[in-house]
Specification:
The protein contains seven helices and no strands.
Length: 119
């Protein structure tokens, strides 16, 4: 396993509360969608895919001017988890907010090229 990204290492500092909530089935409170997305990335990078999926499923709705970026990051995580339908849904949300967002457009185009192979 390679070194963790700085972003994921930062998320690790507070990931315990998210992990406890994901194991208990409770919704973490007061946590932004961007933060829980970072926590999910941390779990995925450390081989904890079940926890990553739990955190993504409990994530709040992104808000703020960069919410299209959060949806895109969630799409990437869903893709890494093999959840193509979830990834496409997150991409669709990102592109509805900002249709010219190049990273989301590129991934969406790649999905289109592969056809309906979603889980």
């Amino acid at each position: 396993m390679g070194p963790l990204s700085i972003r994921s290492a930062f998320a690790a500092a507070g990931v315990a509360s998210v992990a406890m909530a994901s194991h208990s089935g409770a919704q973490p409170t007061g946590l932004s969608a961007a933060y829980t997305t970072d926590c999910a990335a941390f779990f995925l990078e450390t081989g904890q895919s079940v926890q990553a999926e739990d955190v993504l499923r409990q994530s709040a709705t992104p808000s703020g001017p960069d919410r299209h970026v959060v949806y895109f990051e969630q799409a990437e995580l869903w893709d890494r988890l093999g959840e193509r339908n979830e990834a496409r849904d997150a991409l669709d949300r990102a592109l509805r907010i900002k249709p010219d967002y190049a990273p989301a457009r590129a991934l969406s185009d790649a999905y289109s090229a592969y056809g309906p192979q979603a889980k």
